[in-house]
Amino acid sequence: MGRLALFTGCLTQVAMAASAPPQLRLQDGHYGLFVDGAPFTILGAQVHNSSNYPEALKKVWPAVKDLHANTVEVPVAWEQIEPVEGKFDFSFVDTLLREARQNKVHLVLLWFGTWKNTSPQYTPAWVKLNNQRFPRMLDKEGKNSYCLSPLGEQTLQADRKAFTALMSHLKKADGEQHTVILMQVENEVGTFGAVRDFGPKAQAAFERDVPAAVLAHKKPLATGAAKGSWRAVYGDYADEYFHAWAIASYIEEVAKSGRAVYDLPMYINNALRDPTEPLAPWKNNFSAGGPTYDVIDIYKAVAPHIDIVAPDLYMAESDKIKAVLGQFQRPDNALWVPEVGNAEVYARYLYQVLGSGSLGVSPFGMDYFDYANFPLGAKLTDQRMVAPFARVFAAFAPMQRQWARWAFEGRTHGVAEGDDHADQTVLMKGWKAKVTFGQWSFGEKDWPSNSKELPPHAARTDGGVAIAQIADDEFVLVGQFARVRLEALEGGDRAQLISAEEGQFDQNGHWLMERRWNGDQVDWGLNFTAHPLVLKVKMGSYR
Ligand code: DGJ
What is the rounded distance in angstroms from the CA atom of residue 390 to the CA atom of residue 105? Predict the structure, then answer.
């Protein structure tokens, strides 16, 4: 588990530690990101790739506010902090810290260094233009790739120095306040169009034996040797695995050095390979060497200073989202979704992600800069783009601390409407929730009158529900465009809804009831509509 704290203390004690540094903790198989000493749900907003300048922030804060985000993810570019080698400029970081505090949000900083979406585009000119000192990867014919080699010693030294300077500055500027709660090291690493570096140094390393740490984490192929060269052990996967090892080793050095001066939790993000097609060796179909699900073990083996390997969700299909969440949520890897597309179709997945025990989730491109990353995300760049996500975050925001605590205790569940609109069942302790979609709030789907005219949302896939089982017979539900029926796992005929209250938890965790749902509002299950809201529900069984 590397550098993780195993959690044994009592939550109320740690909640007192208001100035404790951010920390990732693991308890009974569940992860929590502790901020100011208590679990915290990141309701994030990731800004555009060029919004890392003071002037650009003016278009960020209004969107962050509209979104009800509590955390903003912002790039810090190597070219920006070290335009001249050895001369650092942290003025943007200082502005960002000041304005984030004024806006009462936390920050996740994204280190755009050697690799940003695999490319060196964010490195300073003195790196970009000096291939002798900062070599690019070579192909089999010895031709330069666009991508910097992970085996470039001087590149590593220079990146590590810049990142460590950033961490050292953060320690001075933020070591008390902890506005920054998480660091992303590099961005969507890997290489497109080449499976690995074929330069002489890389080739020599490729022909050496697979390091013992890798072997201990990543099993040899069934047809491979138990140890030996990469090819002997990993066959047709050898090139991809080797490249993953090379990049992970590089990132480990950067992260380790940064954490030595200021120990914040750190993660890396991933441009996914197809999560549902059968696993096969790289065939120019994803960025090789990045932390795709099949090489998480290699990253864990060589990069213990990286706490989390996180998926960026830009595949809108529900079966793919489900597969990805399963692939990245592991006993040795906390689920954290630092990017999800900002098209409306993704909004429902916030329930699934937040209900799955994730540390949080962050739609990408949440600022009012006039740039749309359609077809990956939305066509819109204004409040209409933010609104579908804002509605969900608004429901979670007041109770984000409780939600994080329930997640850390393993009490939360989440579903998003599948592309097939099929019913879903959530199994809990003693109870199950049946979740259905695409119907009117009154009556049953199969009533002739109801099936004759379906509600407009039936043709869409906007439904989602997150449920926390906060006590044996008590539940907190948040949802939209879905109907939930709670049923006992045993003695279902004697189970009864005792109360369903609409309301909100305040910042101190006290429940503020706004109304009790009864009569029509409960006779047909608990119906969530276009306006996400929070219900606190008690169930019981009569004898
Ligand atoms: C994923 C990257 O991590 C982001 O920085 C951004 O480039 C999006 N893709 C595309 O908008």
Answer: 15
Q: Using one digit for the tens of pLDDT, what is the confidence trace for 503-522?
A: 999 888 999 999 999 999 99
How many angstroms separate the alpha carbon of residue 46 from the centre of ligand 1?
Answer: 10
Cα 5 to ligand 1 centre (Å)? 31
- Structure tokens that stand for 500 in this block: 């369903």
Ligand 1: atom nearest CA of 110 is: 5
- Residue 349 Rama label (left phi>0; alpha psi -120 to 50; beta): alpha
| Interval between CA 341 and ligand 1 midpoint (Å) | 9
Laid out side by side, the sheet with 511-517 consists of 412-416, 464-471, 474-480, 533-541, 495-505, 511-517
Residue for token digits 């304005």?
A: 99
Q: Which of 189, 339, 371 to mutate to test the pocket of ligand 1 (most atoms within 8 A of CB)?
A: 339
Q: Answer yes or no: is the C-beta of 373 below 6 A from any ligand 1 atom.
A: yes
Query: Taking 70 as the threshold, does the pLDDT of residue 7 lie above it?
Result: no
The alpha carbon of 270 and the centre of ligand 1 are apart by a number of angstroms equal to 10
Query: What is the spatial distance between Cα 149 and Cα 199, in angstroms, rounded to a whole number?
Result: 9
Q: How far, in Å, is the centroid of ligand 1 from the Cα of 324?
A: 17
12 has a pLDDT exceeding 60: no
Atom nearest to 75 CA in ligand 1: 5
pTM of the model: 0.96
Summarize pLDDT for 415-452 with one digit per residue, the tens: 999 999 999 999 999 999 999 999 999 999 899 988 89
Cβ proximity of 466 and 354 under 8 Å = yes
pLDDT, the chain, mean = 96
d(CA 185, CA 498): 49
Residues in the chain, total: 543
Residue 465's closest CA among 410, 529, 409, 512? Answer: 529
For 425, list phi and psi in degrees, rounded to 5: -120, 130
In this prediction, residue 491 has a pLDDT band, given cuts at 50, 70 and 90, of confident
| Ligand 1 lined by 117 (C-beta under 6 Å) | yes
Residue having the nearest C-alpha atom to atom 6 of ligand 1: 49
DSSP run (H or E) holding 488? strand 482-488
Spatial separation of the C-alpha atoms in residues 538 and 543, rounded to whole Å: 17
